[in-house]
């Protein structure tokens, strides 16, 4: 998230405007096609702004953002972040005016693409496929499909305009400069009519794609001069963004398309880009593109790092989270499950890319390079509530977390040793009272029996009366024989 209070305050006024009417089909498209990409809050913000326009009105009165906070039941920070999503996806344009009374914002709502435009769009269709999965995506697309009409079976009978309506006679024509009719037909320069301009693409700056390198790498024998027109650059930039294609790789793809044709076929270029992606990354559809830490939240932006800590901070601020995982895997492909974890951190927990990098590295190093989603979500929820925006803040929290973990491990180790020492001693389990009484009774009875046996048994030093008689008898017999 960003320091929204630098950009927007609850007392700032706003009004809503639209120069293009919004239809029921637009509302359906917003809910089914755009909402999976923007999230429910951004969709709710769009609908709430639209509701400020009363019937047959295209410019609302002024309100404060505090009223918008009450309507949506969320903070101004959330409104600011959701507004940026609508702007990025082409549903909103924002303008600002400053005067003595403060700041006033104008939110100009843009209609969504038609279903046809949406599903043929190189960017939105791919990301919707990634969000919904193959089955749901195809089912949703079917809702907006119409059976083709077999025109060869029909003969068109439609009348042309001039076949039905007659032109006015010259004497009936009135000069537009000298009549009331002419003044009525003329539109004032400060007014405009409500219209419907279907935009076919969302805005891309293509700041990270090197077109100069691309142009130098194109073979002049294959690619005609003047090939890179503005429209061609827009198409190449979109495909490079979605499929993460570098300039040299894009050059090879373009030359494959043009090797048998002097004209670039957009559909063929899309097909080749998709084939390249499948070879490089498998059948998994591209995930939502991730950016690096915004400039306003960088602490090592305007200077060269001099210490190891500063170099680490700059690395986190200038590296995309997906690239970080690739580096930690020595260039190996990032697992789809890990890609979804990154998406969740940025979209669901709304953490900035630099903060995400710190979180990922902290979990990887503390969990033997394993990325546990449960642990990641737990830390992300904590950092999101703490409003962590910079890499430095994230590193401080990670350090505190590491110290806590070390203390817990030390305490656990101490308890384990104590438990082990106790286990070395003879185990003496306490018996229930009823069993103790029974055991005692058995011991008493056994003791009595032993005592009686001991009393009845003659001593080894004394002879019994029967033994003495037996000896006397044997003695007499021996004398008689003698």
TrEMBL record:
Region Disordered, annotated ranges: 406-482
Family: Belongs to the DnaB/DnaD family.
Pfam families per the UniProt record, alphabetical: DnaB_2, WHD_DnaB
All residue ranges annotated as the Replicative helicase loading/DNA remodeling protein DnaB N-terminal winged helix domain in the record: 10-223
Residues of the DnaB/C C-terminal domain: 334-396
Keyword Magnesium: no
Name of the protein in question: Replicative DNA helicase loader DnaB
Lineage start: Bacteria, Bacillati, Bacillota, Bacilli, Bacillales
Keywords for this protein: ATP-binding, Helicase, Hydrolase, Nucleotide-binding
Biased composition (Polar residues): 413-423
InterPro entries: DnaB/C_C, WHD_DnaB
GO-annotated molecular function: helicase activity
Biased composition (Basic and acidic residues): 426-482
């Amino acid at each position: 998230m960003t320091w929204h209070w630098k950009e927007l305050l609850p007392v700032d006024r706003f009004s809503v405007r639209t120069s293009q009417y919004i239809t029921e089909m637009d509302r359906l498209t917003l809910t089914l096609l755009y909402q999976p990409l923007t999230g429910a809050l951004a969709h709710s913000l769009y609908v709430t702004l639209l509701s400020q326009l009363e019937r047959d009105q295209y410019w609302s009165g002024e309100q404060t953002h505090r009223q918008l906070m009450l309507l949506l039941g969320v903070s101004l920070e959330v409104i600011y972040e959701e507004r940026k999503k609508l702007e990025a996806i082409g549903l909103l344009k924002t303008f600002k005016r400053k005067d003595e009374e403060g700041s006033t914002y104008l939110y100009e709502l843009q209609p969504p693409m038609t279903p046809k435009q949406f599903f043929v769009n190189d960017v939105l269709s791919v990301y919707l496929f990634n969000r919904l999965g193959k089955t749901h995506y195809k089912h949703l697309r079917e809702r907006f499909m119409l059976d083709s009409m077999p025109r060869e079976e029909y003969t068109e009978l439609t009348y042309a305009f001039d076949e039905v309506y007659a032109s006015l006679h010259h004497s009936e024509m009135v000069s537009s400069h000298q009549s009331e009719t002419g003044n009525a037909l003329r539109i004032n320069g400060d007014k405009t009519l409500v219209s419907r301009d279907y935009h076919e693409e969302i805005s891309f700056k293509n700041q990270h794609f090197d077109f100069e390198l691309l142009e130098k790498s194109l073979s002049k024998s294959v690619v005609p001069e003047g090939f890179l027109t503005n429209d061609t650059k827009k198409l190449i930039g979109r495909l490079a963004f979605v499929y993460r294609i570098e300039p040299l790789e894009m050059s090879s793809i373009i030359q494959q398309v043009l090797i048998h044709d002097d004209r670039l076929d957009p559909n063929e270029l899309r097909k080749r880009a998709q084939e390249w992606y499948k070879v490089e990354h498998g059948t998994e559809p591209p995930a939502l593109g991730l950016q690096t830490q915004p400039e306003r939240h960088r602490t090592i932006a305007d200077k060269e790092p001099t210490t190891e800590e500063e170099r680490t901070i700059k690395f986190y601020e200038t590296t995309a989270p997906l690239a970080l995982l690739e580096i930690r895997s020595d260039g190996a492909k990032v697992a789809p499950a890990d890609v979804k974890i990154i998406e969740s951190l940025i979209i669901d927990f709304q953490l900035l890319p630099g903060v995400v990098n710190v979180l990922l590295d902290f979990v990887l190093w503390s969990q033997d390079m394993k990325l546990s989603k449960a642990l990641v979500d737990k830390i992300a929820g904590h950092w999101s509530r703490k409003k962590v925006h910079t890499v430095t803040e994230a590193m401080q929290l990670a350090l505190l977390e590491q110290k806590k973990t070390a203390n817990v491990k030390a305490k656990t180790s101490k308890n384990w040793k104590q438990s082990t020492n106790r286990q070395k001693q003879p185990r003496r389990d306490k018996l229930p009272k009823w069993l103790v009484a029974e055991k005692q009774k058995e011991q008493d009875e056994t003791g009595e029996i032993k005592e009686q046996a001991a009393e009845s048994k003659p001593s080894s030093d004394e002879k019994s009366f029967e033994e003495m008689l037996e000896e006397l008898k044997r003695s007499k017999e021996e004398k008689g024989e003698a």
